[in-house]
Every structure is written in C-alpha cells, then in structure tokens.
Design brief:
The protein is of the alpha/beta class. The chain has one domain: Rossmann fold (3-Layer(aba) Sandwich), CATH 3.40.50.1580. It contains seven helices and 15 strands. The strands form three sheets. A five-stranded mixed β-barrel has the order 5-14-13-6-15, surrounded by five helices. A two-stranded antiparallel ribbon has the order 7-8. Helix 2 runs parallel beside helix 6. The radius of gyration is 17 Å and the shape is globular. About 40% of the residues are buried.
Length: about 250
C-alpha cells in the first residue's frame, strides 16, 4: 500500500486536514508526530515538519525511508510577490522550486550554485543547481484543470501557478522581495519547498507544492497579514484536490 504524504510546516497549517482524516493512527517518528489515516478514500500520511529547509528535508527523508510513498504534497502559507497578481487568501501552485539564497553573495549581486560549479544534487546524468521543476504528470493528475489563473469554484479565492522561491531569510523589505521576484520570475516565497523538492529528486518521488497567500513578501507589518485565511483556503484546496484528483 502506497501512501500520499501531506507535509506542512506548522500545526495551524494542517489542523483542518487532520480533523478530516478518518481511521487515524498517530505515532512518533524522529521526534515528529505522524498521522496515518484516510481522506477521500486515499491512504494519507500527515506530518508537520517544522519551519525551514533542514526541518523540511529531515521530515521528507524520514517519510521516504520508513514508508512506501507515492508522492508528497507540501502545503501551507506563503508570501506573494508584489507583481504576482495574487492577493491575500489566494492559492499558489508551484511549477518549479528555486533555492533563492544558495550560492555566492557578491559585492554587486547574488549568483547561484552554478557560479561555484558544484550542483546541489545529481540524479543520473542530470545536475541540479538551484532549480527543481515539479512533476507535471503528478500535478496534472492531482489538479486536472491546472491553468495559470482560474476560478476553481472551491471558495472565494483564485489559483495561480508559477515559480516559488525558498529562502532561509524571508524578505524583510519590499526592495528585497522585488529583487527576488525579478531574479527568479517568481510568484511566491516560502522557507521549505525547495528542500523537499530536492529530497524528492533523490528518492525519485513526485512532488507538489500548494501555498495559501498570507501576506505580500517584504511587508513585515503583521497587521496586514492573514495567516488564518491563507491556511484555511489552502487546506480547503488540498482537500478538494484529493476529492477530485485522478491520481
């Protein structure tokens, strides 16, 4: 029996999904609570990784080493870049994940791992430096109508696909956010996705990432954020996807 693994960073990002699981068994794995159950007739693993790249990679590795996994869906909240067209509560789906701060910080600009000449990971003859293109077959199976922008009828939000940037230091100013947006032509910023994508490449497991938009990247005034709305909409999207997916 192969399981679909659902990974979010923090408990508030997955509480509604957890409440919807049937036949739940909860156990500890490497200090993390793993919930095994069923959702929409699918066998599911649900786990909170903790924040950041190392926690995310550790969690993904533990899951793959201990279970037969058919794919990983990383979900939670993220910050939209200013020109993405995304607003608070909207849903972003990654078409590729990019490490935004692995490389060389020069006097005038940042350059990626190709500047060093050492790939982050190799899979067969393919070298991965900073970018991981997500599995289109997996994404299209889970989200059969996977257009760039569409009203999907799941709630009062829109869904948009694009490149995501994973950083260790979230954008603290609008200037930094605009720099990342322009450099990577990205729509969304987060702190875990690329690390899970890397582990999925190593284990040859398909990966999908979905984020609810909680804020505009670079705006650190939390009065202008809406974590609850972003999380609720993202969890609704995840549950709808699993209900209607052909995977």
């Amino acid at each position: 029996m192969k399981l679909l693994a659902l990974v979010s960073s923090m408990p508030f990002e997955s509480e509604a999904v957890l409440a919807s699981l049937k036949k739940i068994r909860t156990f500890q794995l490497a200090g993390k609570s793993v919930h095994k159950g069923q959702l929409s007739g699918r066998d599911i693993l649900l786990v909170n990784s903790g924040i950041g790249k190392v926690n995310a990679a550790h969690t993904a590795t533990c899951i793959m080493e201990n279970f037969a996994v058919q794919g990983i869906v990383n979900f939670g909240v993220g910050g939209a870049y200013l020109n993405s067209g995304l607003k608070l509560g909207d849903i972003a789906v990654a078409i590729k994940e990019i490490y935004g701060d692995e490389g060389v910080a020069g006097l005038k600009k940042w350059t990626g791992m190709e500047e060093i000449g050492i790939p982050i990971v190799k899979a067969g003859k393919r070298k991965y430096f900073n970018e991981f293109t997500l599995d289109k077959k997996f994404a299209n199976a889970l989200i059969p109508s996977h257009p760039p922008l569409a009203k999907v009828g799941w709630g009062d939000f829109e869904i948009k696909s694009g490149a995501f940037v994973t950083v260790s230091a979230a954008s603290g100013t609008p200037r930094k956010a605009i720099e990342l947006e322009k450099t990577f032509h990205a729509v969304c910023e987060n702190m875990e996705g690329a690390a899970i994508a890397q582990v999925c490449v190593i284990y040859k497991i398909p990966f999908l990432e979905i984020r609810g938009i909680s804020n505009i990247a670079g705006v650190r005034d939390k009065k202008k954020w809406d974590l609850r709305l972003a999380s609720a909409n993202c969890q609704q999207a995840v549950q709808e996807i699993l209900t209607h997916a052909g995977y």
